[in-house]
Specification:
Length: 319
């Protein structure tokens, strides 16, 4: 019996089915909890933010993996040519050295992911750990005169690296681990001022969630009357900042502890590596209005320019 046209195209990709099953499998959750707690408890201080990549604007791990992968791939090419064993040995050793910062930065990021992402990430880490073990054994064999067996283990290690890379790609592009979850905000909020509520709707020092063009917005009015507005979903993993805590001019995400400055959305503490989109704010006739900065729309109230208005008063911006 012949298959219906297009039936194959409508079927689920087997690889994606396996990866989806891996996301749903709770069999390793106890290990994930134990390992994640230990990583988060490490006394790394500000080094933790360095490993996350807050200074870089995106995670360090994807950049760090280029050294080991590039070195091992180059070694594999040299292993195909006779008389290149010393250069290949050096590249294998270089890759092992570069694997250390790549692994540490990846582990710190992994501890702050969602459960489904951690499940995939654990297998990703296992594949890469196997690769490091195979390359370590390969280097020992190479240095002790058993280069043939060392090359075999090197190619097995490269295969493990490929499997780990597949899982890493799934983490980044299917599960959105490490990406900026607030990037779309400036592209979906319309230009111009948007009224979000009366001044009395925003108790001083309390985070309040509003919605502008279906985009959640966090509004905080300080005791002195200054009003700040940020995208409400955390750039790290879309945590609800309106459920976080406000202190010292910053808001802390309740999910993973990222801290953002209210005045401009800057990420002063990770794991978030991208700042929160910040809005201009003003008070008009007792109502708070917000807009994206630099939207090109003149500041007006009832057709009158307000560029010179005093911040915190009707017609003036407070940010």
């Amino acid at each position: 019996m012949s298959k219906k046209p297009g039936r194959r195209l409508l079927g689920q990709n087997r690889m994606l089915w396996l990866l989806d099953a891996l996301e749903r499998d709770p069999g390793r959750d106890q290990l994930i909890d134990a390992l994640g707690a230990r990583v988060r408890a490490l006394p790394l201080g500000r080094v933790r933010d360095v490993l996350h990549g807050t200074w870089l604007g995106h995670p360090v791990h994807p950049m760090a993996i280029h050294l080991p992968i590039g070195s091992w791939m180059s070694a594999a090419v040299l292993d195909l040519k006779p008389g290149r064993s010393r250069q290949a040995d050096l590249l294998v050793a270089l890759g092992l050295t570069g694997a250390v910062p790549a692994a540490v930065s990846g582990l710190v990021d992994w501890a702050e992911l969602r459960r489904e992402q951690q499940r995939v990430g654990l297998v990703h880490a296992a594949a890469n750990t196997a690769a490091v073990g195979l390359y370590g054994a390969s280097l020992v064999l190479r240095l002790t005169g058993r280069g043939g067996k060392g090359r075999v283990l090197g190619y097995l290690g490269l295969t493990a690296v490929g499997a780990g890379g597949l899982l890493g790609g799934h983490l980044a592009y299917r599960q959105a681990a490490g990406v900026n979850h607030a990037e779309e905000v400036p592209h979906v909020v319309r230009d111009g001022w948007h009224r979000v509520g009366g001044v009395d709707d925003f108790p001083a020092g309390e985070p309040v969630r509003c919605v502008v063009d279906d985009v959640p917005v966090l509004v905080v009015r300080e005791t002195g009357g200054e009003v700040h507005a940020l995208a409400e979903r955390c750039s790290h993993l879309a945590g609800p900042l309106s459920e976080g805590t406000v202190a010292d001019g910053c808001v802390r995400c309740p999910w993973h502890g990222s801290v953002f400055r209210l005045s401009d959305g800057w990420n002063v503490e990770g794991p978030a590596t991208a700042p929160q989109p910040a809005f201009d704010t003003r008070v008009v006739d007792g109502h708070v209005e917000v807009r994206l900065p630099g939207d090109g729309v003149p500041d007006t109230v009832d057709g009158r320019a307000t560029a010179g208005a005093t911040p915190g008063t009707d017609g003036g911006r407070t940010s």
